[in-house]
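Hi everyone,

Forwarding the result from last night's run.
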Amino acid sequence: MTIADMARPANEPVSVVPARRRGQRVAVGVSMALLLVAGGTVASTYYYDSVPLVESGISYPVVAVTELSPAVVNAFVAAVDADFYDSGDSLITRRYAVVAAGADEESGLRTRILANKAESSYTKEEILDRYLNRADYGRGAVGLVAAARTYFNKPAAQLTVAEAALLAVQLHPDRPTPRDGWNQVLDTMVERGWLAAAERSSLTFPG
């Protein structure tokens, strides 16, 4: 028996309410936490479902990537995101979402949802096709057809690897100088096996 028990009258019952209240508080807290998690999951699912799939719809001339040589196409991949073919969250796909759907930024939540839906619905070839025909290449040239005409006065389907590498610099995330960027693109292509070293050595900077 403790001093507190001795001071309490013999007929006064020991209160157990505080313990019950503590148990009730814990139960309520757990319930609230579960509701918040469930509510957050529902809200997240609703938001994901509310973001539409980016559709195609370009009113100006375009060129299909199937009309370009693989090396020309890969010059742009090397410049923007060399891991594009193996990545499920590629910068190229996110950029496509930005230019096609008016997303705010490349790393934003809405952009990533748009990109995720695009990756699930379109092939890599289709994503490249859509991105290259919407990208801004500078000098007021939007889309690869306009870029080929503006920079080299030729159809996009006739671009050489050297010319494509120079255009690709305009899309490079780090914005290197034209010549430095051109060399980086070609070197990356060699490293990835998209361009033979001997052919790379034979290329000259367009100008």
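The radius of gyration is 30 Å.

Cheers,
N.
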